[in-house]
Amino acid sequence: MKEYLFDDVWKFQRRLRWCEYVVNTNSNWLLILFSRLMLRRISRALGFTIPINTFGPGLSIAHYGTIVVNGAARIGANCRIHVCVNIGTAAGSSAEAPVIGDNCYIGPGAKIYGPIQIGSNIAIAANAVVNKNFIEDNITIGGIPAKIISKKGSKGYLRIAKFE
Questions:
Q1: Could you list the pLDDT tens digit for every one of the 164 residues in the chain?
Q2: Does 110 reside within a domain?
Q3: If you write DSSP's letter for every residue of the chain in order, what string do you get?
Q4: 13 shares its domain with 75
Q5: Rounded to whole angstroms, how far apart are CA atoms 4 and 11?
Q6: Is there a contact between 118 and 132 (Cβ–Cβ < 8 Å)?
Q7: Is 162 domain-assigned?
Q8: Which of 115, 94, 109 is nearest to 63 (CA)?
Q9: Contact of 99 with 122, CB cutoff 8 Å
């Protein structure tokens, strides 16, 4: 328990979820402002740009470092994300961001952009550039541009009771 109380990434995740709760329950505007300021403060310290309501439950951030996520992106439950990951829109479009399914593993340095859909139980390899749809579940994708490199999926990368 002690390691969680002093871990900055864990503190960020708690503040992110608290801010989502405060905003989604239409709380007092002063509380909303305070929660957003607290989230922005720790976000800047850790290098995260993760808007509220983009990730489902079970978000796991491996390390502190640059992570940029567009506010229009939607990522499902139980996502493990590493540093230097960008999830955003393609050049010239601001509203069309990726939709990623549940139980995904996103390796360090991955770039995911454009109006694409990615299935569930997918592992995205380190430094992959994903700019097209991968609807199929239980696959591993990687490369520049990304292609299917394995049928293994994210099973070995995530700790979820469903897999065990």
A1: 556 667 889 999 999 999 999 999 988 899 999 999 999 999 999 999 999 999 999 999 988 899 999 999 999 999 999 999 999 998 876 678 999 999 999 999 999 999 999 999 999 999 999 999 999 999 999 999 999 999 888 787 777 655 44
A2: yes
A3: -HHHHT-HHHHHHHHHHHHHHHHHTT--HHHHHHHHHHHHHHHHHHTEE--TTSB-TT-EE-SSS-EEE-TT-EE-SS-EE-TTEEEEPPTT-SS---EE-SS-EE-TT-EEESS-EE-SS-EE-TT-EE-S-B--SS-EEETTTTEEEES-TTTTT---TTT-
A4: no
A5: 8
A6: no
A7: no
A8: 109
A9: no
Q: Which two tokens stand for residue 86?
A: 């960008």
Q: Please tell me the total count of domains within the chain.
A: 2
Cα–Cα distance for residue pair 43/3, rounded to 1 Å: 20
Range of the domain at 140: 48-156
- The domain that holds 114 is classified in CATH as 2.160.10.10
- Could you tell me if 77 and 95 are in contact, meaning their C-beta atoms sit under 8 angstroms apart? no
Antiparallel, parallel or unpaired: β 129-130 and 80-81: unpaired
Closest CA to 114 of 87, 89, 147, 142: 89
| Together in a domain, 38 and 6 | yes
